[in-house]
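[Automated response] Your request has been received and processed.

Submitted sequence:
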Amino acid sequence: MSTPQLYRQHELAFRTQYAELKERVLAAGELLPGTPGTLARRTGTGHSYWYRVYYPAPGKQAESLVCKEGDDKTLASIRERMEFAEWVARQVVALRKLGFQVADKPVARVLVELHNRHAFDAGLTLVGTLGYMAWLNEYGVMSVTARTHDIDLARHERLKLAAPLPFLDTLKATNLPFATVPSLEADDAPTSVKLPGAQALRVDVLAPGRPIGKTIPVPELDWAAQAVPYYDYLLEAPEPAAMLAGGHCVPVRLPQPARMVWHKLYSSTQRSGFPEKAAKDRGQALTLAAALADQEPGMLEAAFNDAPAAMTAKVKRLSKSLIGGASTHPLLSEALTSCLGK
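Generated structure:
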């Protein structure tokens, strides 16, 4: 039985469509949360006011004051922003149909809130499966649609925020019913929040450290993070990118893709008792690695050489299966053989 291709390239026209969307969103500044909405005029105290009526979260309608009637400049500005939001939503729907990776609406609501509060500008980095999905879109490649119930956010060093950004308050501002997930140790500060339900969205804050799971204070978020070994390597010099989610395209910050490949492969070796999660990590790493090897030769080798020896030693144990899984991608097979040995 032949090994299948790890990915297919999107057509140039579709890659250009994504690039235009990303370019316009990166220049847009603050994004409107929720649906684009409609404008409604309310009169009740002798004066008339304009409101934006929208859904900040699925099933929850809200209104936000725009301006007093007669403030034509402000009214024109919000109309323009709503029209832009509608255009973005149409583009995201079209890209989803073409096979681009798009996360769901609750993910979008969280990411928009973090973006509008400048968390990603300050250094917060999107990792995990969402980071992988975003990189597939960035490289214009199509693979099996990823699904996740987690938003993994990583903090390398103290975030460069103009003022403290309380994490729990930020998540509650989404109008989604997030609740704190109690830590395993009673004395440890929480590191995660979650929506109700067994398969509902969970948001984790992660940081470099060991042993894995150790609680690390994050004072600028009035929160804490879970320690993950070798995250200092993963989070070195993250890159600006975008995440498609719900009807939004949200500017985010991602780990360097080649470092993400090697750290995912390392993580797969630490999934004792969770073979399905280990297989998922390896599959995502190989797919992203194939795109890198084809489009940016040398990046995998450079990132491997920069990785801690203790980390790469774990990955080398997978060399035979990884090289075998890359048999339909000659450049990837060559890069893996160069890094891991025959």
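Summary generated for your ticket: The first helix runs from residue 12 to 26. The chain is about 40% helix and 20% strand.
If you did not submit this request, please reply to this message.
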